[in-house]
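Researcher: Please translate sequence to structure tokens.
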Amino acid sequence: MTHKVTDLEEFCLSHIIRPYQTHPDVVELFGKERCTRLPVKLEEVPELAERHPVWWEHVSERLAQIGFRFPKYLQHPIVDLVQRIQLEQAA
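Model: Translation complete:
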């Protein structure tokens, strides 16, 4: 079953940042407090993936297992990144 995503900020917070709030890379970036809103600009999330590959590997495995779909009107690098992860998982 896939989950439809329409709010990218909530998606990033709920599925990229919060599940790994205690990971050392995330603690280093955002502290130990639970994030109630996205702690970086939406455009910076793909950059975090490049700068913190160990953390991102955990995130990408989780995203691939859950499965997400995005409406065609959502055009953003995060959408491209998640779709690429899902394609790699399917291959």
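Researcher: Any highlights?
Model: The chain has a mean pLDDT of 91.
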